[in-house]
Write a structure and sequence with these properties.
Blueprint: H1 23-31, H2 46-51, H3 65-74, H4 84-106, E1 111-113, E2 118-120, H5 129-140, H6 144-157, E3 165-167, H7 168-186, H8 189-202, E4 216-218, E5 224-225, E6 228-229, H9 231-235, H10 238-248, H11 252-266, E7 277-279, E8 285-287, E9 289-290, H12 297-310, H13 313-329, E10 331-334, E11 337-340, E12 342-344, E13 350-352, E14 354-356, H14 362-369, H15 372-389, E15 395-397, E16 402-405, H16 413-425, H17 429-445, E17 453-456, E18 461-463, H18 469-482, E19 493-495, E20 501-503
Antiparallel strand pairs: 1-2, 3-4, 4-5, 6-7, 7-8, 9-12, 10-11, 12-13, 14-15, 15-16, 17-18, 19-20
Helix pairs in contact: 4-17, 4-18, 5-6, 5-7, 5-18, 7-8, 7-10, 8-10, 10-11, 12-13, 14-15, 14-16, 15-16, 16-17, 16-18
Length: 522
């Protein structure tokens, strides 16, 4: 039943990296209020940065026998024993497994600790990170009863009236994005009210001399801190704040986030690149290393996606000039395949050959932009990174095919790219990849209570972490890769960087009766 729409400082500062082995120590600091949790897109580099001082729910359509037979004919060797319908069912079952573990051992808290069967909160109070992040995944998977219960819990209990300092970027992509998406998919105005309240509490972050936001903002007082930031944290806000403007009719949210994006773009180098770290207060670059990984990645992603979501011509222009520079100076095309490395933002000189799990977003973004050939070639490199070690490492020196950092945080980017490439090319090669990703996750990361990050992809030693993005992104993209095409019509939606689908029709949710359908009948 479908009724319509209704992270980053320079990679060179390896000695300051936050590793999975340090997670327990960080949690202790968090509990004492001495350290704010790191961005997932800054997961490896937070310490380095510090040192730089609606409508109804959706159900998957049951395939007709002839359709199922046609699908089976397109399955290649890797998925011969599992039809797409069966694979989608398996992914949904694994979501239920992880969600059940969260409910049993961490309900009402931000995250599940699957090994210790406990929980972790980012702050002194929970902001229900996992329920908000996972809600639209439940909706897309057709888990109607569970989605309804979760939606009501969030609407009745989530409060932002707390004297806590939060990371503007993470709260925006996870909570603001999650609330807006779930509002559009359900039409529940309580979710929009929460989103607007949160948006208002985050707005003081933009009150810098440049208009680029500070890293942290207090939800109660509006006090800001941490002027040393990066392109991702500055430029990955417009989808969420822009959507809030469209849904509320209040332009201030769009204007603030757009200004931040433009101010960053204006500070690109003469050859069109951005660096790894910038001061939001002065506008000066503090690290000139340019790359496409954590801390810069989603800046590029949002230039493209905001042009598609809002029809913003400025964003389209900024995307085109930026990707041209990225392809010219960061792409490294050789006998070992196509990769993207590091270069000096001012000279374009190559200074590094590292590529990792976060960089694997780029094939999907390139595919979304229409550059299918380049996207295909880069995805093959990403897949090589995964299969060489049984699961992808956080960082790889592709010039030597040696691991530079050996953790794995249950990241979704490589799966996201397979989803986009399959959507646009219909090539079963990407279903094979999805099958490989799924089996690796089940084999190496599954536990009795959920899924774990890995401390080491070589030894497959587990870490006691299951971040909310595993349910919001990793399993969502896996599911959509195998689910019927009408589960979500990508021509009508744009995903934020946390995989929250935002409907291009901003009447959705406010005028449920006239909302367009999610399905295009494909």
């Amino acid at each position: 039943m479908t009724r319509g729409c209704i992270d980053i400082t320079p990679r060179s500062l390896k000695t300051a990296m936050l590793t999975l082995q340090q997670a327990d120590a960080v949690d202790l600091l968090v509990s004492k209020g001495l350290f704010m949790p790191s961005s997932r897109r800054q997961f490896l580099r937070t310490f380095s940065l510090a040192s730089l001082a609606g409508t109804a729910l959706l159900r998957p359509r049951q395939l007709l026998p002839r359709e199922a037979a046609d699908q089976r004919k397109t399955e290649s060797a890797g998925t011969a024993s599992d039809t797409r319908e069966e694979m989608a069912k398996r992914v949904r079952e694994e979501f239920n497994h992880a969600w059940s573990g969260y409910k049993q051992y961490a309900w009402g808290h931000d995250e599940l600790r699957p090994l210790s069967r406990g929980y972790r909160d980012w702050h002194s109070v929970s902001l229900y990170m996992t329920p908000v992040d996972a809600l639209d995944t439940m909706i897309l998977m057709g888990l109607d009863e569970e989605a309804e219960k979760t939606k009501d819990f969030v609407a009745q209990h989530l409060s932002f009236d707390h004297d806590i300092s939060v990371k503007n970027f993470e709260i925006t992509i996870r909570l603001l994005g999650g609330l807006l998406s779930s509002y559009q998919l359900t039409g529940d105005k309580r979710l929009l009210a929460l989103a607007e309240e949160l948006g208002n509490r985050l707005l003081p972050a933009f009150n810098s001399p440049t208009g680029m936001p500070y890293v942290n903002v207090n939800l109660k007082t509006g006090a800001v801190q941490d002027e040393n930031t990066n392109p991702a944290e500055v430029g990955t806000l417009l989808i969420e704040f822009g959507t809030l403007s469209k849904l509320t009719g209040k332009p201030a949210y769009y204007d603030k986030a757009k200004q931040a994006l433009v101010e960053l773009y204006k500070r690109r180098s003469p050859i069109g690149l951005v660096g790894a770290a910038i001061n939001a207060k002065t506008g000066a670059w503090t690290e000139p290393t340019s790359h496409i990984g954590g801390g810069i990645d989603s800046y590029y992603e949002y230039l493209l996606k905001c042009s598609l979501l809002f029809g913003d011509k400025d964003c389209e222009k900024m995307w085109r000039s930026s990707v041209e520079a990225v392809n010219k100076y960061l792409a490294d095309d050789g006998p070992a395949g196509l990769w993207y490395g590091q270069a000096n933002m001012n000279t374009g000189a190559r200074i590094g050959t590292e590529f990792g799990a976060l960089d694997a977003f780029l094939p999907g973004t390139l595919a979304l932009s229409g550059d299918i050939d380049r996207a295909r070639r880069l995805q093959e490199s990403c897949y090589k990174m995964w299969t060489t070690f049984g699961i992808e490492p956080e960082e790889l020196d592709y010039s030597k095919m040696k691991i530079a950092y050996n953790g794995y945080a249950l990241r979704p980017e490589i799966i996201e790219s397979a989803y986009y490439l399959h959507h646009f090319s219909k090539d079963p090669r990407y279903l094979d990849m999805g099958h490989t990703f799924f089996e690796s996750l089940v084999k190496y990361c599954r536990t009795e209570t959920g899924y774990c990050a890995l401390r080491n992809v070589e030894t497959k030693e587990k870490s006691d972490q299951m971040e909310s993005f595993f349910l919001a992104e990793t399993l969502k993209y896996l599911y959509l890769l195998f689910a019927p095409a009408e589960t979500l019509d990508l021509s009508k939606f744009v995903f934020n960087t946390e995989a929250h689908p935002i409907c291009k029709d901003f009447s959705a949710g406010r005028n449920v009766g006239s909302s367009p359908t999610l399905s295009n009948g494909a």
